[in-house]
Amino acid sequence: MRIGIFDPYLDSLSGGEKYMLSIAACLTPRHEVVIFWDPRGEKEIKDKAQEKLGIDISSVIFSQNIFSKDVSFVSRINSSRKYDAIIYLSDGSIPFVLSRLYIHFQFPVEWVKINYKTHFKLKRVHGIFCNSFFTKGYIDKKRGINSTVLYPPIYTLSLHKVRKENMILNVGRFGLNIDGSNYKKQDVLIRVFKSMVDNGLKKWALVLIVGLKEKDQDKLLELKKLSNGYPIHFIENPSNNILFEYYQKSKIYWHASGFGEDLAKYPERAEHFGISTVEAMGLGSVPIVINAGGQKEIIEDTKSGLLWNTVDEVISSTDKLVHNERLLQQMSQEAVERSKKFSGDRFCKELNRIII
């Protein structure tokens, strides 16, 4: 089959794009796969996908983006005839095409209004799949459908034997919500860690790995100033190898997206799944993560990780592991086992059952 893939955020190469590029990589052995993007950017994205995400899409073809605003409706329709199937990452919109259409949702789209045109387009959709039951719950309720859940693929890259260090790790892109709040809540984690140090925590470090755009450098400086005088370190835009080296070295993984937010009103501000959490688990880092969004689906609370609702719970859960090496080791092993549920092989098998 000839399959087209559309991802409007492809150049950011974040977790969502890792999902879509993994789809492309899984399908290329059996199908001709085309990504709708400016062909002039093909080499850059392929190189970055390999270096930053560890995904080989060298066999994927890049072709004109038929979903660009510069492409007329008639041209899009005519071009869509050339494909047996199109996989479309939706921001809430549903295109009209003449091939089989599969819609993928990665986050709740509560702001989208449903009208008769939407219902008409939905009838032509061959399949809808989401990245978590958290996302599915909102999508299904909004559209009155029963979508499929296809968890993201998680690949753990163990480069060499690395000794665990007294390190708490957090991984996430740096970004701000519309109201100016920090999306991944690195500021919250910094304050929590500082409080722990002020209250006696010694010989532990907090490492924040951030995906950063040039325009956000000044804002990141504010976090660095907040961290002054404490064992808090920043790693910006690391390669895939360096990222996984830190996963291997860390003992504890923190995550806080959604904390302090009105998630009933803005559910998209919670983590929609939590790829970095599972990557950390796969290399034995014990997750202590917020009890919200897709994070609740990843870990088995008190077995393969710990869920928290308040800052005090972050501190008490971390203290519990810091001062109990046996428990830390036990939960580390359970985290590794739990991560296998989200393997890349599983993803490809389930994907091929959906795209038929």
In short:
The protein is an alpha/beta fold and 356 residues long.
What is the topology?
Layout: E1 2-6, H1 15-27, E2 32-36, H2 42-53, E3 61-63, H3 73-80, E4 85-89, E5 100-105, H4 116-123, E6 125-130, H5 133-143, E7 148-149, E8 167-173, H6 186-198, E9 205-211, H7 217-227, E10 232-236, H8 240-249, E11 252-255, H9 275-282, E12 286-290, H10 295-298, E13 306-308, H11 311-322, H12 325-339, H13 344-354
Parallel strand pairs: 1-2, 1-4, 2-3, 4-5, 5-6, 6-7, 8-9, 8-11, 9-10, 11-12, 12-13
Share of residues in strands: 15-25%
Distance between the termini: 10 Å
What is the top-level CATH class of the largest domain? Alpha Beta
- SSE succession: EHEHEHEEHEHEEHEHEHEHEHEHHH
What count of helical segments does DSSP give? 13
| Helix content class | 25-40%
The gyration radius over C-alpha positions equals: 21 Å
Mean of residue pLDDT values: 91
Give the structural class: alpha/beta
Annotation, overall tally of beta strands: 13
Q: What overall form do the CA principal axes indicate?
A: globular
Q: Give the CATH superfamily of the largest domain.
A: Glycogen Phosphorylase B
Describe it for me?
The termini are close together. Helix 10 (295-298) links the parallel strand 12 (286-290) and strand 13. This protein has two domains: 2-150, Rossmann fold (3-Layer(aba) Sandwich); 167-341, Glycogen Phosphorylase B (Rossmann fold). The longest helix has 15 residues, at 325-339. It has 356 residues and is an alpha/beta fold. It contains 13 helices and 13 strands. It has a seven-stranded parallel β-sheet with strand order 3-2-1-4-5-6-7, with helices on both faces. The chain has a six-stranded parallel β-sheet with strand order 10-9-8-11-12-13, sandwiched between helices. The mean pLDDT is 91.
